[in-house]
Design brief:
The protein has 384 residues and is α/β, with parallel strands linked by helices. The protein has three domains: 2-146, 3-Layer(aba) Sandwich (Rossmann fold); 149-261 and 287-300, no CATH class; 317-384, Rna Polymerase Sigma Factor, Chain: A (Orthogonal Bundle). It has 16 helices and eleven strands. Helix 5 (105-113) links the parallel strand 5 (94-97) and strand 6 (117-120). It is globular, with a radius of gyration of 20 Å.
Length: 384
């Protein structure tokens, strides 16, 4: 059996993972699920998949879940301690990390320390602590396999050559809903408009990150640590069709790409079954109907988030954690209409500019930088 802990089971990654496992059947088994506070959805998942353990981040949600199970033997844990217990459970082989944001880091650390295969859908984990997690993975024998489409594409394309033969990692970006919107209109963009992504069906926060291209900035930093590649060997290219998920350019001029329809079940399934490929419900593209595939340079003046991502990838240390934390606050303030769309960029850049980077942080230093950045971001909002 391949025993799976699904952390973040009620979000888009979580529900897609359940669909993958449902279709794969044996020998793949969901043995634990974790979520924030949507205990009703977790209760339904327990009815179907019969996991041995579940965890709810909110204690009151754990109480409600226990009551809903009517004596079902699934053990219910709560809080970050409970989620971390699932991540390092000896009866788990694969941890799918679908929890969004910085909240995923403690569980990711525990899974890596325990030598698990970690299917990582959470960019923030490596953005915050990539240079800490990589040595931990080498020590424990853990595998970190990316689940997001771009890094899964790079992961697959890198199998065509050796690390020293790589000239460039090329991350593709859809460009989001405002790729062709004049910057003069950015100040009046509403949360409702920003949530209308042209290609992908994603969670609320990551959809806003795609609209600001902050998502791509996080991916730049993630690629830097995940593939041990310096920032000057990483680039971004806008590709609105989202068919080419990313590319690797080699020293002989060859470019290897991974292509497919935009469906997260493909990289999720590969993270679970690797190195095997198995039949999936996702059909290959019909090339006779695809038409054109377009590529262009991103506008870094219109989307200064990209400059911030390259900066954090170059400087390393605690700057990635600070950028991510400030962005999480900025996105939430945008949803609350306390700042406008343009001010997301200004807030994040201001917090980064005032941060004194710790070049060789411990995990405690990373968490401290995260807390500091959130405080600074809230102060920035209060001043305007």
């Amino acid at each position: 059996m391949h025993r799976i802990a699904l952390l973040g089971s009620t979000g888009s990654i979580g529900t897609s993972t359940l669909d993958v496992v449902r279709r794969l059947g044996e020998p793949f088994e969901i043995v634990s699920v974790a979520a924030g506070n949507n205990w009703e959805a977790v209760s339904r998942q327990i009815d179907e998949f019969r996991p041995r353990r579940a965890a709810m981040f909110q204690p009151e949600a754990a109480v409600a879940l226990r009551q809903s199970l009517n004596g079902h033997p699934t053990e219910v844990l709560h809080g970050m301690e409970g989620i971390c217990a699932l991540a390092c459970d000896p009866e788990v082989d694969i941890v799918i990390m679908g929890i969004s944001g910085a909240a995923a880091l403690p569980a990711a650390v525990e899974a890596v320390k325990a030598g698990k295969r970690v299917g990582l859908a959470n960019k923030e984990v490596l953005v915050m602590a990539g240079e800490i997690l990589n040595p931990l993975a080498h020590e424990s024998g853990a595998e970190i396999i990316p689940v997001d489409s771009e890094h899964s594409a790079l992961f697959q394309s890198l199998e065509s050559g050796h690390h020293g033969e790589v000239s460039k990692l090329l991350l593709t970006a859809s460009g989001g809903p405002f790729r062709e919107t004049p910057i003069e209109e950015f100040g009046s963009i509403t949360p409702e408009q920003a949530l209308k992504h042209p290609t992908w069906d994603m969670g609320r926060k990551i959809t806003i990150d795609s609209a600001t291209m902050m998502n791509k900035s996080l991916e730049i930093i993630e690629a830097r640590w995940l593939f041990d590649m310096p920032a000057d060997k990483i680039d971004v290219v806008v590709h609105p069709q989202s068919i080419v998920h990313s590319m690797v350019e080699y020293c002989d001029g060859s470019v290897i790409a991974q292509l497919g329809l935009p469906d997260m079940r493909v990289p999720i399934q590969l993270a679970i079954t690797y190195p095997r490929r198995m039949k999936s419900p996702v059909a290959p593209p019909d090339w006779s109907k695809i038409g054109e595939l377009n590529f262009s340079k991103p506008d870094m003046e219109k989307f200064p988030s990209l400059k911030m991502g390259f900066r954090a990838a170059r400087e390393g240390g605690t700057l990635g954690a600070v950028m991510n934390a400030a962005n999480e606050i900025a996105v939430e303030m945008f949803f609350q209409r306390q700042i406008n769309f343009l001010q997301i960029f200004a807030l994040v850049e201001s917090v980064m500019d005032t941060h004194e980077v710790n070049a060789k942080p411990s995990l405690e230093d990373v968490f401290a930088a995260d807390t500091w950045a959130r405080e600074q971001a809230n102060k920035w909002v209060s001043k305007i």
